[in-house]
Design goal:
single chain, 156 residues, alpha/beta, Alpha/beta knot, 21% strand
Length: 156
């Protein structure tokens, strides 16, 4: 199952970029034998200032048809890492070819796009900068692959 990180904004060179790249490389090595990956980033920018609706339209264009759609939203479910891994495995085992993870802009994810989601998840009750959310998502995708592989990376 191909994984798509769909985000508003560009992640430029720097520590966040290095962390995302490192976790996605690890995910590729660990996840491919499990049928997870590759992971691809899709970055969109609303240069016309159309707000959430414009960002939602841009994000919709990069989400593959039929993908399991996950939005990161502060009002979403807070899952444990094993629960997140099981959700990925369920979509993969159910025949989904793609899973798309959406990180909205400063105001969040467009309600229309959020309404289409298979799952809305929260990374906790605190609000995080969008660039850190991308790092945290990349790490959780890698962690999910290690959980499914039975690796000792995830310790309970």
């Amino acid at each position: 199952m191909r994984l798509h990180l769909c985000a508003v904004g560009r992640l430029r060179a720097g520590p966040e970029r290095e962390l995302v790249d490192g976790y996605l490389q690890r995910l590729d090595r660990t996840g491919r034998p499990l049928g997870l990956g590759p992971a691809t980033e899709h970055e969109v920018e609303d240069r016309k200032g159309g707000g959430m609706a414009a960002e939602g339209a841009l994000l919709s264009r990069v989400i593959p048809d039929g993908a399991a759609l996950v939005v990161l939203d502060e009002r979403g479910k807070t899952l444990s890492s094993p629960e997140f891994a099981q959700a990925l495995a369920g979509w993969r085992d159910g025949g989904r070819q793609d899973a798309a993870f959406v990180i909205g802009g400063a105001d969040g994810v467009d309600p229309t796009l959020r309404g289409r989601a298979d799952l809305a998840i929260s990374l906790g009750r605190m609000v995080w900068p969008h660039m850190l959310v991308r790092v945290m998502l990349a790490e959780q995708l890698y962690r999910a692959a290690t959980i499914l592989a039975g690796s000792p990376y995830h310790r309970v």
